[in-house]
Amino acid sequence: PPPPPLPPAAAPPPAPAPEPAPSKRALEGFSPMTRTAKVKGTISNKGEASVDAEATPMGRFMRSVTSAVEKTWHEYRLKRGDAVSFGYLKVSFYVNRDGHVDDLTFIEKSGNPLMDSFTLDAILHAEIAPIPKDLLPLLDDERFPVEYEIIIQ
User: Fold this and answer.
1) Is the dihedral of CA 118, 73, 140, 40 positive or negative?
2) Rounded CA gap, 68 and 148, in Å?
3) Minimal CB count within 10 Å: which of 52, 93, 118, 132?
4) pLDDT of residue 68
5) What is the pTM of this model?
């Protein structure tokens, strides 16, 4: 009998995808990570999201809150650059139905009082939109809970 045919040559494995360019935020050394008590999981600017949380009413509102805080934080950072140093801080607060910040507290301070101070100012002065009416029934006391971590690299 004739010999069995040889298997076809295996194709070489595909080349790995190139690393994506760092985001503008990463280049500026600011990396927020936020999470709410009502939305399970983490929203982060690193890696791929396993769930498109921004497609939910809570996810969309959280993104609007973090965008407002980040915008104001960067404005303050440019004005008070001498106050920025490597570090980590974590705060928690609530956004009330009118978009105002309530009960802002430190969970962990950075060790740099100037940076802690202008971060609190940035959160308090961020132009946060009122909570959407369709989201209010999902919240305790019509307040949106936020935990916010800031990592300065």
Assistant:
1) negative
2) 13
3) 52
4) 93
5) 0.64
Query: Across the chain, where does the E strand assignment appear?
Result: 30-35, 43-44, 87-96, 101-108, 143-152
Structure tokens, 22: 């760092």
DSSP 105: E
Q: Quickly count helices (H) and strands (E) in the chain.
A: 3, 5
Between 114 and 5, the more confident residue is: 114
- Please classify residue 47 by burial: count the beta carbons closer than 10 Å to its beta carbon, then call 0-12 exposed, 13-18 middle and 19+ buried: exposed
Q: Tell me: the pLDDT tens digits for 49-78?
A: 444 556 788 889 999 999 999 899 888 888
In angstroms, rounded to a whole number, what is the distance separating the alpha carbons of residues 28 and 81? 12
* CB-based contact 110:89 (threshold 8 Å): yes
Instruction: Fill in the DSSP letter of residue 136.
Output: G
